[in-house]
């Protein structure tokens, strides 16, 4: 999605549910948050050699774009 390509929402939701079921994400009154297990799971993405490696700067840019709605390309708000 961050590269301007489409991503099936059903796939995202299924993946999100997988993280909920595994205890990496938990529901709280304010919404959802990562558990300690989830933090470790996603921190591993920053380690070289991980097949799902991602650079921290790319993640920070995507988070900023989501929060501000000012990313590159056509961002569509979800309501």
Name a few traits of the molecule.
single chain, 79 residues, 43% helix, two-stranded antiparallel sheet, 2 strands, mainly alpha, globular
Walk me through the structure.
With 79 residues, the protein is mostly helical. The protein has one domain (9-68). 43% of the residues lie in helices and 10% in strands. The chain has a two-stranded antiparallel sheet with strand order 1-2. The longest helix has 13 residues, at 9-21. The protein starts with 8 loop residues before the first helix and ends in an 11-residue tail after the last helix. The model has no long low-confidence stretch (mean pLDDT 83).
- pLDDT < 50 stretches: none
* Number of separate structural domains: 1
- Tally of helical segments: 3
Order of helices and strands: HEEHH
What's the main sheet like? 2 strands, antiparallel
Shape: globular
**Termini gap:** 17 Å
Compute the number of strand runs.
2
Averaging pLDDT over every residue, what do you get?
83
CA-based gyration radius: 14 Å
Helix content: 40-55%
